[in-house]
Amino acid sequence: MPSQSNKQPALKKITRGLTVGSVITGSTFFHGPPVLALGLTKLFKKSSKVDETNIKITNSWLAVNNWLIDKVLPNTQWDITVDEQLDLNMQGRYLMTCNHQSWVDTTVNQYFGLTRMPLTRFFTKWELIFIPFVGQAFKILGFPMMKRHSKEQIAKNPELKYRDMDEARKSCEQLLSQPFTLLNYLEGTRFTPEKQAKQQSPYQHLLKPKAGGLALALSILGDKIDALVDMTIVYPDGAPGYGEFWLGEVPRIAVNLRKIEVPAWVLEGNYDEDAAFREKFQIWVDGLWAEKDQLIGKMKAQYAALEQ
């Protein structure tokens, strides 16, 4: 018969899982319907008050998640460093880049940003609109939703390229009616050693950055934002799964935020039409990514030294 000491960790894990699952499910059913109901009213009349109310409801849902992190996952150690030059506030307009390792990354972003920055949004595919509740919530909350066309489709009908740009421009311009944080995972996918090897990434801790999305956002919003923010997330004990995080199996999470100065030339070029500008922009982004790679290495080395 298993000893009581062997039973305890498993029982504790089950209890924590049931608690987290029940609270998040209950909170979602409590906060979700009002967002969707208010969103339907926008079909008849646009209202900034409705938008503000929906953001408050969403932030309340996030606050429940953060409460769970603080109270149910108290053993997770957070190490958050913010650049002194970065003056964040809830009324700001920010573009944010971040490395991507796990679904937990978005939760980390929300945990940090809830009381420091406006609601974080990110580009999503238009097809997500057909996912019940989730897709509609993205649309209602102002997540830029884009109808992307393949290279083959654009080759057959070049006008589709400009239609995509118009969709992106409209989506971004809609954000300007309120404070916002627009997040871009430049790697385009989650980091794994296999992906790193396959693309022969020159970075030790990162995949190659895709500059197109950032170039698009800067061309539309660049002269209207308060800062370009780079968030670096490090899991000293290895990138966790989403379930691992909520079961309290992530001992440490390190977050670094720094302000990226945007050169004037970045806002003056045409990424899609000017090959020389496109190359220069990619070199600039590659340089930012090299700095980020060094930062991740430094952060990991600091934690490794603590274990010796």
Automatic annotation (TrEMBL):
Domain Phospholipid/glycerol acyltransferase, first and last residues per copy: 94-236
Domain of life of the native organism: Bacteria
CDD domains: LPLAT_LCLAT1-like (cd07990)
SMART domains assigned: PlsC
Pfam families per UniProt: Acyltransferase (PF01553)
Molecular function GO terms recorded: acyltransferase activity
Protein's recorded name: Phospholipid/glycerol acyltransferase domain-containing protein
Taxonomic lineage from the root: Bacteria, Pseudomonadati, Pseudomonadota, Gammaproteobacteria, Moraxellales
